[in-house]
Amino acid sequence: MLPFGLPLTAEGLLQLPATKTISRRLSDMRGYYADAEAYAARLAAEDSLIYTFWETEYTGDTRGLSFGITEIVPGTVGREFHMTKGHFHASDGDEIYLTLKGRGKLLLQTRQGEARTYDMTPGGICYIPTGWGHRTVNVGAEPFIFVSIWPPHIVHDYESVQKYGFPQLMLQGDSGPVEAPNPRYQAG
Ligand code: S6P
Ligand code: ZN
């Protein structure tokens, strides 16, 4: 890895070098949204883009850092806001999120069922300790964009989130986002 420095662009963004780009469309999110009917209806109309993340995985042999940028498109499936799949880090490894643009929420859960939710607004950071599964949600009308930084060689565990989701759902209320319990959730 060589040193680099990046300024914020005029739009308040960072153009991080990326080695991998992953886009998740509605069809990649089957089973993740609480309202299965709304999901099927939207998918029948269009397989829309939900989010993209650009990653630079550290491949050196010292204690480096991996990093990336995630952009979640605004919108809802039923009343549930667009979100990432969410995962646990299967091996030890904490993570930092730094918000660049838009308005988001960070949902956290432990495997024992403890849940926390934090606001993500431009310039703010969130610290995610090992053991806390994490998912980000775009609760605004604009793209929601944040940087993530994590230690390399982490195994991302998507399986338990895929099965049971998070304890909390982030829904569109009459005057903004509201949190509701997830009826499908089980600690595990
Ligand atoms: C990686 C970090 C993020 C997510 C990205 C997409 O540890 O937490 O870069 O990978 O936000 O979310 P997900 O849940 O699909 O990996
Ligand atoms: Zn992570």
Walkthrough of the structure:
With 188 residues, the protein is mainly beta. It has a single domain, classed as Sandwich (Jelly Rolls). Helix content is 9%, strand content 41%. It has helices at residues 36-45, 159-164; strands spanning 20-25, 49-56, 66-72, 76-77, 80-81, 88-89, 95-101, 104-109, 115-120, 125-128, 133-138, 144-150, 156-157, 168-173, 176-181. A six-stranded antiparallel β-sheet has the order 1-2-3-12-7-10, with no helix packed on it. A three-stranded antiparallel β-sheet has the order 9-8-11, with no helix packed on it. Strand 4 and strand 5 (80-81) form a beta hairpin. It is globular, with a radius of gyration of 16 Å. It binds D-sorbitol-6-phosphate and zinc ion. Residues 87, 89, 95, 134, 150 line the site of zinc ion.
SSE layout:
Blueprint: E1 20-25, H1 36-45, E2 49-56, E3 66-72, E4 76-77, E5 80-81, E6 88-89, E7 95-101, E8 104-109, E9 115-120, E10 125-128, E11 133-138, E12 144-150, E13 156-157, H2 159-164, E14 168-173, E15 176-181
Antiparallel strand pairs: 1-2, 2-3, 3-12, 4-5, 6-13, 7-10, 7-12, 8-9, 8-11, 14-15
The chain binds D-sorbitol-6-phosphate and zinc ion.
The site of zinc ion has 5 residues, from loops.
